[in-house]
């Protein structure tokens, strides 16, 4: 970088500007014809933390509900029973419902994996148990065939390969768990059902052996943040959820008294290097669409070629303090 056009940006957030990266990042004033200079500011960066894995299982961690429902006993509740049934059992259709509370997972987390593990009691033949997302709230102590048997998404969330014999059977519910955490739909758990040509029995959360109880092993990556501002040039999530609220007005790239511009050369941007053009470029490469001034005359947009703040009423070829232009108090990037 060499002479004139100067913008000293007191960065309130991370704006990575390649054209400035190789230049002098000092706050010293100098004159010349082209170039942009940034001050050393606090560079904030958000990144994803390591994945955390938790087994949600009654008696171990978290809250779990489960029960089975029976077509020929439509008002009967089995929340305290130690077995979960699917398929044709004792001449009737039986289904099972399970719910694992994921409220402990921070908002905006990424679900790396979620696996339902359920202990199958011995059976002689193979079958496939379908897993569906439940669409209505229910309670283990009151759930019955009448109030939940049809309240599920017909689309499959997954299938359990219930092979002959006994042991733990598993199903991947990662996409479903992500939807629960994102709030795409309420977490009312899952319903298990299979064709009435087979029967499968699983151990419920009432089983006296903890290891035999159903569990949902979920691994997630929670967002971490350092500056609380949504500046889009960073990796990961750095505002909202467990972090500080997102700045609603945009990302400030100047502070009063710290921006200077000149009608010079700034390669590739409308053939000019005024502060507005170079700053708008800084916004654009970081994912923002507008450069907006805020001040006594209200916000303005629409920087026309080499004109600084022409919507303020006059063309400004500003050799001095950019923020000293009439009515301007702050320059921000926004969408």
TrEMBL record:
It is found in: Secreted. Residues 63-218 form the Carbohydrate-binding module family domain. One of its GO terms (cellular component) is extracellular region. Residues 1-21 form the signal peptide. Keywords: Secreted, Signal. InterPro entries: CBM96 (IPR055372). Its main location: secreted. The keyword NAD does not apply. This is Carbohydrate-binding module family 96 domain-containing protein. It comes from Chondromyces crocatus.
